[in-house]
Amino acid sequence: MRRIHYDTIDSTNTEVRRLADDLREPLLVTAAEQSAGRGRQGRQWQSPRGGAWMSLAWPARQPPAAYAAVSLAAAAGVLRALRELAARSPQRFEVKWPNDILLDDQKVAGILCEQRLGGGVHADLIVIGVGVNVNFDHALFPSDLRHPATTLTAALDKPLTVDAVIDKVAEHLAAALNAFEAEGLTESLLTELRESLAYVGAVRSWTGPHGTVQGRVAGLDDAGRLLLDTTAGRIACDTGEFA
């Protein structure tokens, strides 16, 4: 996989899209720091030195509809990478639906998936941005975080280099995407995600197109949607914000 590295950049997701015209092979863009990193819902992602900030441009080989659950495949890939790096305590990592990775209920990684449809010389493209908090001062986290955050080295009490994290995440992410393109959202992938899902049995909220509802997390359905048991019955959450 070709990799382009920057010392400082606005956003690896933005840059990889700039570079991806007529892309035929996966391209990984990394940066030591981002000045305008982006998370879900357009939120800014704090990206100081000491984090693994990367975006993978993936030329799509299936119709756009086949990638509806690609964020779950990406989450599984990142989860596998971090569990392998942790070695002794993989169960401490969980997936906060749809694509945050928690370590001891603190956010340690986030994933942003974007899709660009083809036209002219532009190939259909999946862009997967990943940010992993590896090793930096907790004082650099903003005070208004929606969810408590940590770094790998602090939580695991284990020295890790940014390059080691990037290499492992890129390896598992590519493998997960290859499998997803070939097989889709398989039962084994769903089982892995269900077993790693955070907050099962807890009461949480989901904000969708028609407002916010609360319910007890019941798992994932066969399409990878989050299931909430509410006072009005069980609902399947698709697009929206889970908190």
What report would you give on this structure?
The chain is α+β, with helices and mostly antiparallel strands. The chain folds into 2 domains: 2-195, 2-Layer Sandwich (BirA Bifunctional Protein, domain 2); 203-242, SH3 type barrels (Roll), CATH 2.30.30. It is 25% helix and 33% strand. It contains 5 helices and 12 strands. Helix 2 packs across helix 4 (162-183). It is globular, with a radius of gyration of 17 Å. It starts with a strand and ends with a strand.
Q: What's the β-strand tally? A: 12
Shape: globular
Structural class label: alpha+beta
Order of strands in the sheet with most strands: 1-2-3-7-6-5-4
Global Rg: 17 Å
What helical percentage do the residues reach? 25-40%
Helices and strands, in order, run as EHEEHEEEEHHHEEEEE
Query: From the 3D coordinates, which CATH architecture of the largest domain would you assign?
Result: 2-Layer Sandwich
CATH class type of the largest domain:
Alpha Beta
Number of domains: 2
N-C termini distance: 35 Å
CATH superfamily of the largest domain: Bira Bifunctional Protein, Domain 2
Work out the helix count. Answer: 5
| Unreliable segments of 5+ consecutive residues | none
